[in-house]
Amino acid sequence: MHEATLGQPLEGIKVLDLSRLLPGPFCTLLLADMGADVLKIEDPSGGDYARYYPPFVDEMGVFFASINRNKRSLTLNLKDARGVEVLERLVLEADVVIESFRPGVMERLGVGHERLRALNPRLIFCAISGYGADGPLSLRAGHDLNFLARSGVLEQTGLPGAKPVVPGFQLADLAGGALYAGLGIVSALFRRERSGQGCFLDISMTDGALSFHLPLQATLAAGEQAGRGQGMLTGGVASYGVYACADGGYLAVGALEPKFWIGFVTAIGAPELAGDGLMTGELGETTRTQVANILKQRDRDAWMEIFASLDLCIEPVLSPAEAFEDELFRARKSFFELCGVRHMRTPLTPHAMEHRRPPLLGEHTHEVLETLGFDAPAIGQLRAEGVV
Fold first, then answer.
1. Longest dimension (CA), the chain
2. How far is CA 286 from the centre of its chain?
3. What are the residue ranges spanned by the domains of the chain?
4. Is residue 21 within 8 Å of 48, Cβ to Cβ?
């Protein structure tokens, strides 16, 4: 998003974020980067656990800092009736509440979606959970790996005959949870402009992961089988896979279309393979072996120099450290400095946006309570009694 002159799309939207760790905070990072006023509501006894994940810069965990910029922080004890009252007063003016507790926790605290939406019918209440607000597993504990396993996604990762591979990032948390939550919230805000009503969003990270199977489910419904690493897009053909090079680096070859495959095998000196890119079975394996043996003869970057002037679907497999310094992301201005720490821009963030550092625990408690009408002695009493 480059049209900074148009203003931030979510400017004026007030979000109360009761979530912790990764899925919820990543979702509210996206909202904050688009201009929403995100207020983290944290337990006074320690707040978001992610604050304490090492390594640290200036006594703040960098993991926490990376996904909590542009937000404010209010400490609030929701096990105290006075804390609940403060939250209810905030809800009267809020647009969105997002939480990631197990189903039923907010209800036991007296601040479930039905209660809060009764106070503010325009409120959008988004609950992110592992297995959904209802169903036989709604109260089950889990992490990203568990959600991927239950949804069938994990079984499809890896090579034939080998065990499933743990993905390199939290696929269900981020794509299945945070992104669906963000899309749901923005869609609900748009619908509210016409209906005047808020809604309850039940975001299951396992449901989200399951949805990644849409093309595969169609294949299965047609009576075809899909073994691990045997599909056209999962490593089952020579023209779509990862190959090792002489220096231990790797190349990602995505030459599915004939023109790309022909260009590739011609460039590596094996034009006789021009018709074998999509072959499976014994011939496909033979083709893969031939390509692998050729690519092992040069270093990764040497191959990339050969491919540089050609129209091919081939990229070097970069480490994160290499990617962070890559010319593509430098040109795209994908990173920026904030308080001496390098941060990654989310794709929808205007380049001209002025970012705010991540908040200290409860940093904005006093100013938030003042806006609700509490005077200094009342705020001091709430602090002394552990309510904030």
1. 84
2. 38
3. 4-212+334-384, 240-324
4. yes
Active site residues: 143, 173
Q: What CATH number belongs to 4-212+334-384?
A: 3.40.50.10540
CATH 3.30.1540.10 fits 240-324, yes or no: yes
Q: Amino acid identity, residue 255?
A: A
Q: What's the CA angle centered on 361, arms 360 and 362, to 5 degrees?
A: 105
Place of tokens 């279309």: 257
Tokens of 176: 């299945």
Task: Please enumerate, as own/partner, the contacts of 150-154 that have beta carbons within 8 Å and a separation of 24 or more.
Answer: 150/206, 150/209, 151/176, 151/206, 151/207, 151/209, 151/210, 151/212, 151/213, 152/210, 152/213, 153/209, 153/210, 153/212, 153/213
Output the tens digit of pLDDT for each of the chain's 388 residues.
555 556 899 999 999 999 999 999 999 999 999 999 999 999 999 999 999 999 999 889 999 999 999 999 999 999 999 999 999 999 999 999 999 999 999 999 999 999 999 999 999 999 999 999 999 999 999 999 999 999 999 999 998 889 999 999 999 999 999 999 999 999 999 999 999 999 999 999 999 999 999 988 888 888 887 788 888 888 899 999 999 999 999 999 999 999 999 999 999 999 999 999 999 889 999 999 999 999 999 999 999 999 999 999 999 999 999 999 999 999 999 999 998 889 999 998 877 788 999 999 999 999 999 999 999 999 999 999 999 9
